[in-house]
Structures are given as structure tokens and as C-alpha cells.
Amino acid sequence: MTRFRMSTGGALVFTLLALARAASAHEFWIAPSHYDATPGATIELGAVAGTGFRGERKPWSPDHSVRFVVRAAKAIDLARVATPGELAWTRFAPSDGDGALVAFESDFLPIQLPAEQFNLYLKAEGLDVPLAARGASAAPGRERYRRCAKAWLAGGDPARATARLGLPLELVPDGAPGASAELRVQVLLEGRPLAGVLVKAWRTDLATADVSRPPFERDSVNVAWLGRSDASGRVSVPVREAGEWLVSAVHMEPCREHEVADWESTWASLTFARTGGAAATRPASSSPAAPGIAARP
Predict the structure, then answer these.
(1) Which of 91, 207, 218, 291 has the fewest CB atoms below 10 angstroms from its CB?
(2) Reduced to 3 DSSP states, what percent helix, strand and coil does the chain have, rounded to the nearest 5?
(3) Alpha carbon distances (Å) from 75 to 69, 104, 188, 211
(4) Nearby residues of 77 by Cβ (< 8 Å), 6 or more positions away
(5) What letter does residue 296 receive in the DSSP assignment?
(6) Is the pLDDT of residue 273 over 60?
(7) Using 50, 70 and 90 to split pLDDT, how confident is the model at 279?
(8) Burial of 244 (0-12, 13-18, 19+ CB in 10 A)
(9) 296 confidence band (pLDDT: 50, 70, 90)
């Protein structure tokens, strides 16, 4: 049986774990060809929508992009060199070995779910306020959502990893992700600390052959850890084991355009690698997303 670590900020309800399996909302993350910023070495950048590192590569769509940037020795607007319709969004070669932070922000896209499925999704993501507001309503869940994804390409300057990029919902690490056995992250909503948000982390083995495999062939691993952010928006994620890591959070509030949707959600993710950690103590267990829950592209 997979073990789950609980945050020290308070006990979490175990039913969240079962709900996460039963009604798994699809994550979205930046998937680089490798996670180190070696000077002059080309890194292919793209994105995946799925769960637990198993998913579908998404083609580049300038129509739904707000920004696609990399912060390295200087800031580069990757949207200007990305190719529409391509699964490999673009390629980037670092000019130094101090690391690079890649970020993508999308605009809103609409989705609608039947009432029961929408409520399961709210429970699985710990979105207690929207769930309570819906009460016993049998109305479908009318939602619009957007993505805020980051990836850290490891290098020698931790300050590049900890920079705030001003995304609507942003996971800002206190140090270089993957450099130590604990990742302390602050969740920011429009630049302000967001307390009480559910943060999840996934881990899978990191090997060149595995990273290069099509995402739909990769294992859908269970959530490795989950916990709530504290009053300052911070949470400490244990990342002792070596591997590829995905950390994610979602915030939902009433939609500002009521004719479009009732709710709007913003999803944030951070991907990185830990190469110097401990070996995995157990094999990753398969946990594919259940059918019947609409996927977010």
C-alpha cells in the first residue's frame, strides 16, 4: 500500500486520498527534455496534461497563451519562437550554468461537468469553499480555468529559482528545487500569500529513457505527498527521494464574468528533478485517472 506523508500544519482527512483517485482532475506541467541548464546544451520544452506523469503532450497554441518565458542570464520571450501546433513548443540553449526558470501562463478556457462529477472534483482538490457554496445543488458545474506552470532547470544560482514571476497563482520556492531533501514553497495568489490551499506532489523515477518516452506510455503514479499551506502561504514538501517531481495547487473563486461561468479556477505547477536524493524505497504504483471526469486540456 502506498504511504502518504502528512503536513505538520494539521491532520488531513484521509478521504481526500480516495477521492483524488476516484475523481482525478488533470494536472498540467512543463516537461523539458532534461532538467539541467548545461551551457550550450539544447533543451526541448513542451507541456503535458494528465495525472502523475502520465498524460498527453499539448501542442503550442498562441491563441491560449498569455506568456511563455525563461529567466536565465536574461529574460527571453519564448512565445516569439514557439511553433504553433507543435508538441515540442520550442528549444532553448542556456548561455551559462547558473540555472533557468521556465514559466507559462494560459488564458481561461471553459468546461462544464455534471453536478456529481463536479462535486467529486471539488472534494478531491480540497476546494471546500466552492463545495460548501454549492450545497445540495443539482446544477452542473460551469467553470473556466487557466494554467500557471513553471519548471526549474538546475544550475548554480538559487536566486534564479526563487524569483517571483508575477503569475496569477504561483509556487515560489525558498531555494533551488531538488537541491535538498525538503522543498519549502510559498503559494502566491496575485502576489499575496494564499493560506489553506491544498498542495500535492508526485514523484517518478528520473531516467533519460523514461523522460523521453511519450507521456501516455508513462506510469500514472500515486500522490507522494499532500498538505495545506500555512497562514503565510508556505508549505514544506519532503522530496528526499531522487526523481522527477511535480508540485501542484489549484485555487477557485466565483467567476468574474457570470455569463461565461459560475466559477473560475487557476492551476499552478512546478516541475524539477532531484538527482542527489535517496533511492526510492518502493516502486511507484499505478493509479490511472478514473473515466467519467472530463479532462482539462
Answers:
(1) 291
(2) 15, 40, 45
(3) 7, 13, 21, 26
(4) 67, 68, 69
(5) P
(6) yes
(7) low
(8) buried
(9) low
